[in-house]
Design a protein that fits this description.
19 strands, 17-stranded mixed β-sheet, two-stranded antiparallel sheet, 4 helices, 336 residues, mainly beta
């Protein structure tokens, strides 16, 4: 070619390798994750799209990845570069379609995401989901990244019978919190609680809202965020307990800690509203709960027979304030 750009446009290659291993370590080196590439092959020519195949295993479980990218006439242009990526592993399948746009001075990304599987418990080796969680799952959404702005829209999020949509926005303003909006048409509480593992750990010495995912070398700490949640209906397995409806909650996360929750809901004829505040820096950490409502039948909300058989608690109106101080989250939940 007459120029370096012309030379790049005419490049053709065929790459093939195998028996490679990539190791990731946590910052303090107490955890490692091995990614094995059993076989990898990629090829590209000026007339044909880029194609790549990868087979290997992650934490001892096999995966398969395919990438196809449309050929571009001129790598120096700012035209979008379409591509499709599919991945299979642990009984699930993921497909990502989108394009990369080489804007001047930056890149923008636009993706459509699909992922599904027959059994979410099969994801345990990679994502830490309880292995006995026997529910199908499906995700469909759209991700857009432009300069310093990120937006994720999940149009369909299903786990078992639970169905929801979610929007996540990382605004361009510096230090602005993530904005998350969750709309749940149906939640089966017993199914979701099965997926939650609350460790019995000290909560004063480290951020509470951390996520330990097996395929990541270190714990992930949730960033500052404001979360708005609306639930049309919350179902529970026990027919003796009232199902919840018209649930609205606003959650504030600051410096990795749950700071404040405001909420309202209905259960049968009862309606209630409340607010919880948390101070995780106090020694020991403290929490407060303010709750008010009308037409309360407490026995329809919580299983009182397990605590005091025959106890009946009803109130036309009620106001309640609870404060507590404990060092361990499980103690706070189990012992009140």
């Amino acid at each position: 070619g007459a120029t370096v750009g012309d030379l790049i446009n005419q490049v053709a290659f065929h790459l093939e390798t195998g028996d490679a291993q990539i190791r990731f370590r946590s910052p303090n080196a107490d955890k490692k994750v091995d990614l094995v590439l059993t076989h990898m092959e990629a090829r590209r020519s000026p007339e044909a799209p880029l194609q790549a195949l990868v087979d290997g295993d992650l934490r001892g479980y096999p995966y398969h990845i395919e990438l196809k990218a449309q050929a571009t006439k001129d790598w120096r242009s700012h035209d979008p570069w379409p591509f499709t990526l599919t991945a299979e592993g642990l009984g699930g399948r993921t497909k990502i379609e989108g394009h990369l746009s080489p804007e001047p001075g930056d890149l923008s990304l636009d993706l459509e995401l699909f992922s599904s599987g027959e059994r979410i418990g099969d994801l345990e080796p990679w994502w830490g989901v309880p292995a006995d969680a026997d529910y199908p799952y499906a995700v469909h959404g759209h991700l857009s990244v432009e300069a310093d702005r990120l937006e994720l829209n999940l149009d369909d999020l299903r786990i078992g019978q639970t169905a929801a949509t979610m929007t996540l926005l990382d605004p361009p303003e510096e230090e602005a919190p993530l904005q998350v909006d969750v709309q749940v048409s149906m939640m089966v509480l017993d199914e979701l609680m099965h997926l939650i593992d609350i460790e019995d750990k000290e909560i004063a010495t480290k951020p509470l809202l951390t996520v330990d995912i097996p395929i990541f070398p270190g714990e992930l700490t949730l960033p500052d965020a404001t979360v708005h949640v609306e639930l049309d209906q919350v179902l529970r397995d026990s027919e003796e307990l009232a199902d919840l409806s018209e649930v609205v909650a606003d959650v504030a996360v600051l410096q990795g800690h749950l700071e404040r929750v405001t909420f309202s809901a209905r259960a049968d004829e009862a309606s209630f509203r409340g607010r919880s505040d948390f101070d995780w820096q106090a020694d020991p950490p403290t929490m407060s709960l303010d709750l008010a409502g009308e037409a309360l039948d407490l026995g329809r909300l919580v299983p009182l027979d397990e605590v005091a058989p025959g106890l009946v608690v009803r109130a036309r109106r009620f106001d309640l304030r609870v404060t507590g101080a404990v060092r361990k989250l499980r103690q706070m939940l189990d012992e009140g």
